[in-house]
Structures are given as structure tokens and as C-alpha cells.
Specification:
The complex is a heterodimer of chains A (642) and B (447). With 642 residues, chain A is α+β, with helices and mostly antiparallel strands. In chain A, 40% of the residues lie in helices and 20% in strands. Chain A has 22 helices and 25 strands. In chain A, strands 1, 5, 7, 8, 9, 10, 13, 14, 15, 22, 23 and 24 form a 12-stranded mixed β-sheet that branches. In chain A, strands 2-4-12-11 form a 4-stranded mixed β-sheet, with no helix packed on it. In chain A, strand 22 and strand 23 form a beta hairpin. In chain A, helix 4 runs antiparallel to helix 5, helix 19 crosses helix 22 and helix 21 crosses helix 22. The longest helix of chain A is centred in the middle third of the chain and has 25 residues. Chain A is elongated. Chain A starts with a helix and ends with a helix. Chain B is of the alpha/beta class and 447 residues long. Chain B folds into 3 domains: 62 residues, SH3 type barrels; 211 residues, L-asparaginase, N-terminal domain (Rossmann fold), CATH 3.40.50.1170; 113 residues, Rossmann fold. Helix content of chain B is 24%, strand content 23%. In chain B, strand 18, helix 6 and strand 19 form a beta-alpha-beta unit. Chain B is globular. Chain B starts with a helix and ends in a 24-residue tail after the last helix. Classes of the chains: A alpha+beta (642), B alpha/beta (447). Strand 6 of chain A pairs antiparallel with strand 4 of chain B. Chain B: Its EC number is 6.3.5.-. Chain B: GO terms for molecular function: asparaginase activity; ATP binding; glutaminyl-tRNA synthase (glutamine-hydrolyzing) activity. Chain B: One of its GO terms (biological process) is regulation of translational fidelity. Chain B: Keywords: ATP-binding, Ligase, Nucleotide-binding, Protein biosynthesis.
Amino acid sequence: MEAQNDWKKLGLRVGLEIHQQLKTSKKLFCNCPVTLVEGGMEDVFERSLRPTRSELGEVDIAAYFEWQKGRIYEYHAPREASCLVEADEEPPHMLNREAVEIALGIGMAMNSNPVDEIHVMRKIVIDGSNTTGFQRTALVALGGEINVNGKKIGIQTICVEEDAARKGEDRDRVSSYILDRLGIPLIEISTAPDIQSPEEVSEVASWIGTLLRLTGKVRRGIGTIRQDLNISIAGGEKVEIKGVQELDLLPKAVALEAMRQKRLLELREELRRRGIDKEDIIFTPVDVTNILKSSKSKVVEKNLSKPGGKALAILLKKFKGMLGYELQPNRRFGTELADYARFYGDVKGLFHGDELPGYGITEDEVRKVYDALGGDPEKDNFILIVDEEEKALKSLKAVVERIRAAFDGVPRETRAVLPDGTSKFMRPQPGAARMYPETDIPPIPVTKEILEKAKALKPPTPEEKRKYYEEHLGLSSNLAEQLVGSEQQETFERLYERLHGSVDATTIASLLLVHMISIKREGFSIEKIGEEKLFRVLELFSEGKIAKEAIPELIKLLAQRPEADPLELAQKAGLLTMSEEEVRAIVKRIIRENERIIKERGERAKSLLMGAAMKELRGKAQGSLVSRLIDEELSNYLKKQV
Amino acid sequence: MAENRKADLLSPGNFVRIFTKSGMVLEGLILQRYEIFDPDYITLKLDNGYNIGIRIENISRIEELHGAERRHTVEFVPESFQAEVKKGKRIHILATGGTIASKIDYLTGGVTPILKTEELLEVIPELRSIADFSSEVLMSIFSENMNPARWENISKRVYELLREEPDRSILITHGTDTLGYTAAALSFSIGSPSSPIVLLGSQRSSDRPSSDSAFNLIAASLYAKEGPCEVAVVMHGESGDSYALAHRGTRVRKMHSSRRDAFQSISSIPIAKIEPRSGKITFLRDDVRKCDSVDKGKMNEEPKLKFSDKIFLLKFFPGMPGDVIDFLVEKGFKGIVIEGTGLGHVSENVIESIRNAVERGTIVTMTTQCLFGSVNLNVYSTGRLLQKAGVIGLGNMLPETAYVKLSWALGNFGEEEARNIMLRNIAGEYEERELMSFYPRWYHGEV
């Protein structure tokens, strides 16, 4: 990866869009609980969606293709977590106030300006993930900025929107979805393109992630947060990368997209160097079915046997080597073209001269194709698509358009992130306004009452929280910083509150952030220990039933038997503290055993006595108690001697 | 800033830059607001497509922006389908309200209905391969504003159309709220149609991708090609897009305020099941008016297309005073359809008023508010008293159908004949045999 300076030189600019599920009691537009369901009763139904047209007859292109392919959506409606609203069988209810208040509260923490009146919009999405064919979304605050490690990052918009349905399994023309997730409130935070390196993306994402967590009002766990990226480099184009779920993948996706744009610009240079002109790329498909009709290639054979199956090729003069040009690891310019062919023509893929002979297509066949196209195998290249004629033609047309776009550099696209951080073409970027008003919901004025409730929900910034932990709860700066950034922070808050100060913050924080981790490192599985058990352990400590030193021991026992009662475990393992009388008896015995030394050293024998006592009493009595009793008994003993 | 200048700049259609007192600088297009919205705000469409409301009081300054153009919102205009038009069955679409198809102005959010046949075929190209379509807009009303006079208009036009071209099927698009009533009205007024008459509507408006209108239109068209020569309603059969049902016009009822499959045959079975994906139609009953056995010339007889607006549909409720009936008679109502309780009962306190009404020439009929099952005035003494008072029990005829039928009967015939007509099964409004399976299985929490 390149150094910070190199990214600046490259003119990298990144905007981040964070989508986070909110922890409301109900969904955004109905009274269903916010929960995902495994098993249980469900109703199943199938639907299709049809693209809507604009005044000018335009339709959303992705929507149109989905419909043309005759996609059928199979919806699974869990009875526990969906109702007529998710099934699109009832108009939406009023916008969930709680979600609006949480979002506005978060907005306030980012110095964003609430709008005066919220309008719910419909954003066309026809991949079946919304039963309505659109996602409902509302802009609640505009502008603002955050300060991440000394750098100011602008905030553009804060929206509240409904989450989409969960993807189920696909088969042939049927895509299936589960409706429990549909309608869960999301907050969408869009930053300005102020981020200038992959590392900064991580920092900003994690800062915002922490802020969201500090509200205590967001859902946690896999799939509850998703990031989209808008990435451009100087001379490139703003490309949208969708669906990054893991924080770790963010910098990688950014770096790889910057690389892709850089390579596309280099590709353009190479085209110029070779003296190729945009106008040279023309759509002149040649039928080469005859050449390939007895090909041994399985793909060719299968596709030619389809009704109306044809092999069509176009010549690309002076393009030798250009299609094998790598844009991202394992993704060549040819791969990009294949994505276009798939999207626009619904074919499975394409062949190009840089990868042939191969895939069962022989050298002889390749030569014949070049001959039929009137091309020079040394200098020229070709694209070959074998499929039903209409599909093959549509695909080739799209491929030609994409190649022509290469002369302009980077096309404006929406891309989907792949597990390794590379990305593939998903669709051309939708116009900003595939949005129209949700007429079923009247506008909601942002009243003083709403703003006051929002203010109460406004989270502290991570910096403010850290300061609070240090100054008010007395945590060390190290522990405070760790805690703010930790997944355990909410658990800490709850435990601290429930113990009403009977256990100091440092003890709780150390348990969660230090002891638990080292116990885990020792090989104990601490995951199954519930928060309730942790509370019990700390409560035993606060009641003086166990010593602080016994806490880690008890946790280890709990790791082995997470269902057991901590008090019972402590009892069986002899971890319960002794009564003062029991401790005093032991102290007296130790004094007797050490009479000789005490006579020698007098008061100074205390540290030795302490050591001997603690050896026996560690985990069974508080050190402070032992120390006090030694003081008392020692002075008694010395008095008697006098 | 002068208030009138401010108001001027804030008129819908202007591109403006707005400075708010809360510190925002916003650019966008001022949109028209619905009348019911709070007039203290304006609606602004921002560049990113979102609408927001701004309190007029919160605006400190406005600048007019020039050169803002109407941007293309979605980049793709699909090619016209050149699918071959099947010359064969002809279907005429008669629009009465609601929209089967529409276009959205993404900028303003305005929805324009598509009314021209060509445009409709453009948007629902599947229709081209079903039949040869023509269309007209007869009226454009919310279905709650339908009334007997409008039933007459529709009946007249349908009658004319069938006279002109007896073999052309007719699709009537209609708002769903009172669609069942109009279906019943046509069932009586066009008693012997020479082609299928199919009513349809949509429960999800056509301005959304999940609208059921195209599905219903396709299903209705398929049915109109092969269905019997009588009036039917074709709508979703279940919540999904697997099949539609054709219901007899006199037995159908809207049973849900919002579901796609709201229309169901009550105490009855539908005429047919239609599967638009495969084009398959399964006919479910034999007692239909098959088109090939229909005498097309019969349409030329004197039509009975009138409807009386002096009929009242009265739902009895515990505590209902008899005065209500006295009042109706006084106001000149000629027919009253009572939705009684259970087997067809009303309180004994009302019976006197009913007797008076009948004596003054008002036709009083009885249906059941249970919807399922029949009226029977022989079982309990109240029923026998009602019979004695002159009430006509209407068996298992649906209350709404009974209301429409009485309106038609008194619109076209004298009192005596109307009484007889009410008892005759003219258009399948009486279901002769009520089977165990006609009653729906409700949800009982079974797993």
C-alpha cells in the first residue's frame, strides 16, 4: 500500500455512507418487533415487480432488466416479525417517532441541522428486496462535521430509512427473501468526500461506529451495520461501492478501487499511445457460428445448441493484450466487459482474444475467427459471445459501449464489493432522483418536543466519553480509551449502573477488558458467560462474599459451567471469603508460629506475617482485612510480651 | 426581505437558494404542497432527490437560481415492444376511475394516469399478445362517489358497446371501494350480455412497482377471451401473484380494506381461476352463461338500464329506534333493505314502523349482517312477526347486492313486479346450494 502522501498525489477522495440498524421497540412503519427470526411459523407468497415510468417514459435500467428477465420473488413472512405492512398488503403506518428522535440525537452530536419538516420518500429498488419495489427513506438532518483524530470530516446528510428484506436462497428465476429484516429502522450517515486515504476511512468509520454505539440505541452484531463508499481519484470518476459489512474490508476496498481507477487511466493512455480512436470501435458483429459449430468447447457446444444459438464476434483493431490488462487482482479489463455483457444481455459470459486458445477453443478455431473478422492475430483482438442471437447482440452492443467509455477514462458506476475487497460492476449509477414522495405518509413537523427528546438521546463523542470515564469514574486513561472503543462498553455501562457504585468502575472495566481477555487467552471459552452471571460475580464481590482476587478464578469456573450459579461455584471451590473471626484465628496461629522472628524484629515483622497470611488467605479474605487484623493481633501480642 | 417578494420566490416551480435562520443554505426546487399540509411550511426538492419541509418563518433570505434544467431522472428509455398483435378477440376497456397505469413525474412526485390504449400497451406489453385492445374513459371518479345515476351511465354505454359489436368483450376499470356494487348493478341491467363483462381494479396504486393493476388487467383480459357471457370481477385470488379469481358480479364482496385478495365470493365459489404466468384458466362452476349458447340478438330487446335512488340500505343495531324507518318513508324512500341480525331479525320495537312502511307501499326486505348464510324468517317468532308485517326475506343474497337489485327493480318495474323480481334468481344473486366448503377457514393459531 502506498504512503499517505501518495494517496494525496493520486487525489483520492472518499465519502462514506454508514447504515446502522436502530434499536427501537418497533419497526419504522408498523408495530412489528425489531428482531430476526430463525424457524417458527411463516407465510410464503410469490410476487413480481414492474418498473414504473417517468413522464418521459424512462424507467430505472436495473429495474427494467430485472423485470424483463421475468424474475419472481418468493417472500417468506415470519409471523413473529412481519405483518401486512411488510407484505405490502397494508399502507405504512406513521413514521416511528423513536427512530426519528434517535437519528436527530445522533445528528446533534455531529452538529447537523435538523430539517423543519420530514418528508418520507420512495427510492426505487427493484431487486425484490423490498416488497413495495421501493425503499422508504427520509432526510432528517443536513450538514455538520465531525473531528476524527484532529481532522475535520464534513457530514452531508442524515437519513432514516427502512432496512431491506433478508436474502434467502435463489433458484433459477426465483429469488427468495425473508421479511423479518424489512422495515427495521436504519440511520444513514453520509460524509462529505473529505477522506483522503484508506487508513482514514477506517478511522472515520470506527469513530462514527463508536459514536453510534455510545447512543446505546443501535443494534449490535453481524449485519446490523453496512457501509457504502463513494471513491474517486484525480481524473477518475465518483464510483459507488456498495455493501461493505466488515470494517476491516473498508481500507482494502478503497485502495483497490483507487488502483482500478488509476489502471483505467493508464489503459486510456495506452489506447492513445497505440493511436486508437474512440470512433474506431464500432458495432459490427460477425457471425462465426460455422467456424465453431463443431467446437469441442463445452460452453460453445451448449450455447450453440440453444434455439437460435449463435456465435457472434467483433474485431478490436490494435487491441492485442489490452483485454488481459489487470485492473484489480484477478480482474482484467476483459472481466469488466464480461460484467457488462451479463448485465445488459443476460449472457453467462464472453471470450476474448487475450485468453484464447483456451476453454476448449482451439488455436485453429481462433485463427479462423481472426480470418473471418479480417484481423491480424499479432496486433488485433476480438470479443466472442455464444448465446441466443438476441442476447448475444445486446451483450456485444453493451461491450462496445464499455470499450468506448474506456477512451474517456472511468465510467460512473455502482459496483458491488467482493469478499476480497475487489468489486464488480453492478449497474450504472441511478439518477439522484429515482425518488418520489411516499404519498401514504403525511409530512412530519420536527416539533420542539421531538427536538428535546432527541437532545436527551444525543450521544457524547468518543472523546467526551473518554474524558468522562477518566474524570468522573476514575478510570486510567488507558482503560478509559480502551473502554470507549470496546464492544464491551455497553455491558460496562449496564453493570456499573446496576451495581450503584458498590463496585468501583476500575474493577468492572478491568474485569471486562483485562481479566476476561487474559482468561480467554488461557484457553477458556468466555463467550457463553452471560451478562447476568457477570453481574452476580461482581455483586458477590460487593457483598464481601468473595475477594477481588477470587474474581478471575470464579470466571474460569463459570467458563466451564456457564449455567451454574456463581455463589454455588464459589462455595464448592472454597472461594468464599472467611468471616473476620476465622481470619483472626488464622492470623493468631501465624503469629504463634512466628514468635521467634517477632521477638527479634518487633513491629517490623508485619510484612513477613502479611506475606505468610496472604499465602494462605488469598482469594478468601480481603487484603485490607488481613492487614488490619495483623496490626491488631501483633500489637496485642507485643503488649503481652512487655 | 419584503414579504410579497418572499412569497413570490416561494411559488412552486422555482429553483431557489434558501438561507435559514437555523444556519442552513439549501438549493432546490419548490414543490406544490397538498392542501391538507400545514401552510406554514414549503416543500423543497433537494439536488439529491429528497424532499424536505422548511418553516417559512425560518427562512431569512431567498435567491432565485437560473439555468436549472429539468434533469433526466433515470437514464433509460426502453425500446418499444414490437410483439405481434394477435388479431382475434377484441377487448374494449372502459375506464370509470382509479388508474390502471400511470407515469410519475419524479421531479414533482405528480402521478399522471395513462389513458391512451397505445401508451397502456407500451407499459403492459404482455397485453398485445392476448387480444386486440381499444379503450375509452367514460368517467373519472373515486369509486366512493359512485351512485345509481352513474350505474345507469355505465349500463347505457356497455349496452351500446355490445350492440355495436356483440363479440367484443368489455373490461371496466373501477375504484375498488364500490366495485362490487357496480358489478351487481351491471349483472341486473345487462342481464343477457353477448360477451363477457369484466370489472377490475387495483388495491396498490399503479404508481408503484408492486402495483397489482397490471396483474389484474392481464388476468382479466385472459378471462375476457374465454369466460362466460355474464358479469364478473377479476382480482388477485391470494396475496401473491400466482393466480387471480373471476367472481360472479352478484356474489362478490370486498372483504379487506387493503389486501390484494380483498375480493372474494361469499357463500359461493368463483367462476374461474386464472394463472397469468401460464395463461391457464380453470373454470370452477358449470351454472354459467356459456357464450356459445347465447343468443346474441337478445341484446336488441328493450333494455332495463335504470336504477332508483330511493332505496335505503339499513343496518340494524341493538337500540336502533323505529323512527329511522318512519323518517325514510316520510322522505319518500320506496325500498328498504335491512341488514338484520342472525337469521334476519330486528328488535320488536321496530316492527310497528316496518308494518307502517309496508302499508304505505314501501318494499321492505331482509338480509343478514352475518354475510355468510341465509335469512330465515320461520325459525323465531320475531321472524314470523316480520313476515306478517310484510318483510320479504332474501335468502342468502348479499345485503349490497340486495340493495342494488331493489334499486334496479324499482327503477324499471312497478311495485308489485319488483316484489316478485326480488324473489327470483336473476343473475346468480341467490346461491341455490350452500356447501360446507363455502365458509372460509379462519385462523385459529394452528401450527
